[in-house]
């Protein structure tokens, strides 16, 4: 089972690292947990248009999360119903847009997990272009390389630097569940938190948690 994004973010935070993209990204369509690999696009101000992005959506995007950085350079939305249909047809499992999106009702009906900075009414306008495809980008100050793991669920979006973080986050989530169960059984918060305290200390010290029991090549989506 894939750990929640909240647990992954906490593990990264305890280790003095970053990776969570929400905030500033906000949910346009929340969906069950998905693990995909980034397909990166960087936009920039200036004429040129979005044709390379449209071409990318004709690729085989099986298991990919489309990550569009720099989309705040556009005057309006760079993503909407048409690109959502194209992404789903190509096999994408999610999209992250550092800028505006529109057609929110249609996007939610289509079901593609989508997080963005804001909703917009107008399209992108003529003064934005695709500056790079498949290169390392920065979203909300977090570096994301093409092929990096991206986890999306109802609670957020996180870029995951390596699989050990998922293993540690699985242990962290299990420890939090133990805390909740202890509270329900009548323990005080101080008593219940002991289930988590040792793990938190180990993570701060940089020790690796238990391994996730999973195949060597897991499916692109975990539900």
Structural notes for this entry:
- The protein is of the alpha/beta class and 223 residues long.
- Helix content is 32%, strand content 27%.
- It has helices at 5-14, 51-56, 81-90, 104-110, 163-184, 189-204; strands at 26-29, 34-45, 64-69, 77-79, 94-101, 114-119, 128-133, 137-139, 142-144, 149-153, 156-160.
- Strands 1, 2, 3, 4, 5, 6, 7, 10 and 11 form a 9-stranded mixed sheet that branches. Strands 8-9 form a two-stranded antiparallel sheet.
- Strand 4 (77-79), helix 3 and strand 5 (94-101) form a beta-alpha-beta unit.
- Helix 1 (5-14) crosses helix 5, helix 3 packs parallel to helix 4 and helix 5 packs antiparallel against helix 6 (189-204).
- The radius of gyration is 19 Å and the shape is elongated.
Key descriptive features of the protein:
223 residues; alpha/beta; nine-stranded mixed beta sheet; 6 helices; 32% helix; elongated; disordered C terminus
How are the SSEs ordered, and which strands pair?
Blueprint lengths: L4 H10 L11 E4 L4 E12 L5 H6 L7 E6 L7 E3 L1 H10 L3 E8 L2 H7 L3 E6 L8 E6 L3 E3 L2 E3 L4 E5 L2 E5 L2 H22 L4 H16 L19
Parallel strand pairs: 2-3, 3-5, 4-5, 5-6
Antiparallel strand pairs: 1-6, 2-7, 2-10, 8-9, 10-11
Helix pairs in contact: 1-5, 3-4, 5-6
């Amino acid at each position: 089972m894939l750990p929640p994004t909240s647990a992954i973010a906490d593990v990264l935070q305890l280790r003095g690292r970053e990776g969570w993209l929400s905030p500033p990204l906000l949910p346009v369509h929340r969906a069950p947990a998905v693990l995909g690999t980034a397909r990166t696009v960087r936009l920039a101000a200036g004429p040129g248009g979005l044709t390379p992005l449209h071409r990318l959506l004709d690729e085989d995007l099986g298991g990919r999360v489309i990550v569009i950085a720099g989309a705040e350079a556009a005057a309006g939305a760079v993503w909407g119903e048409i690109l959502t249909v194209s992404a789903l047809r190509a096999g994408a499992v999610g999209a992250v847009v550092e800028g505006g999106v529109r057609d929110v009702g249609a996007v939610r009906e289509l079901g593609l997990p989508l997080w963005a900075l804001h909703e917009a009414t107008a399209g992108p306008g003529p003064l934005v272009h695709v500056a790079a495809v498949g290169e390392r980008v920065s979203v909300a100050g977090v570096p994301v390389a093409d092929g990096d793991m991206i986890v999306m669920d109802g609670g957020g979006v996180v870029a995951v630097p390596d699989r050990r973080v998922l293993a540690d986050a699985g242990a962290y989530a299990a420890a939090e569940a133990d805390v909740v169960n202890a509270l329900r059984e009548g323990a005080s918060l101080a008593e219940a938190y002991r289930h988590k305290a040792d793990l938190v200390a180990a993570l701060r010290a940089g020790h690796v948690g238990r391994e996730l029991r999973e195949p060597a090549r897991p499916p692109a989506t975990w539900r």
